[in-house]
Design brief:
The protein is of the alpha/beta class. It contains seven helices and ten strands.
Amino acid sequence: MEQIHAKDVQKVFLAADLTRVVAINDFDLDVRRAEFLCLVGPSGCGKSSFLSMLAGLDHPTSGELWIEGQPIKAPRPEVAMVFQDHSLFPWKTVLQNVAVVLKARGVCRKEAEDIARRFIEMAGLKGFEHKYPSELSGGMKQRVGIARALAVSPEVLLMDEPFGALDAQTRILFQEELLRIYDQFQKTIVFVTHSVEEAVFLGDRVAVMTFRPGRIKEIVPVGLGRPRTLKILEDSLFLKAQTSVWEVLREETSKGFSTLKCAA
C-alpha cells in the first residue's frame, strides 16, 4: 500500500532577476509503506526540493502531494528529516540536541532524555552525551542527526544526502548502520544520493530523475534480498541493477553537461 503519493507536482522558483525557474514538473511518484526508496538524478534536478516538500518545509506550486492519504500542508509529527549538514544546535550537548525534538512535542524532560539516551547508545555514541558538536567528528555529528530523527519514532524518514560529506570508509560504516536500523524498525525511507552504488546497496527501488525540470524518468527495481552486507556488492544482481541505474542516469547527466557548455 502506498504511503507517499505525488501526482503532477510542479515547483517553480523566482530567480534573482525575477524570471521563473521550473525546478520540478510533471513529477509522479508513489512510495510503499516500509519501502526504502532511493532518489538519484543530475545536480540541480530538484531532488532536495522534493524532499523539502515531503517534509512540509516547502510547498509545490501545483499538483498533489500526500502522506497517509492527507495533503502535506506543514511539517508532520510522523515525518522526520536528516540533512547533509546534520543541523545540530552548536550550544547544546549531544543529549540536548536529541532530546529537544521530543520536548518540542510535549514530552517531559526526564522521559525525553531517557529516550534520547537510548537512541544515542544505538547510534554508537554512548559516553558522548555531554559533548558539544564542536567536540565531535563529522561522522559523529551525523550519528547525532540520525539519532535525533529516529528518537521521535517517525513513520517516514527523509534523508538528503546524509553521508555526502563523509570520507569513504566512514560512509560505508554508516550505510551498514542504516541498513541495520532499517531492518530493525522497518520505517519508510526516502533517501537522496548522488552515488549510484549507494542507491543500489541501500534501496528496494531506485527512482531516477531527469535533468531540470526534474521528473521521474524511470524507477529501477533493485531485486536484492535483505538483510544486506558488503558481500552483496559482488553479487551479479547488484552489478546488473547498478548498470541499469547508471545507463538511465548517464543520459540525463549528459544533458546537464551540454547545457553548461552552451551557457559557456
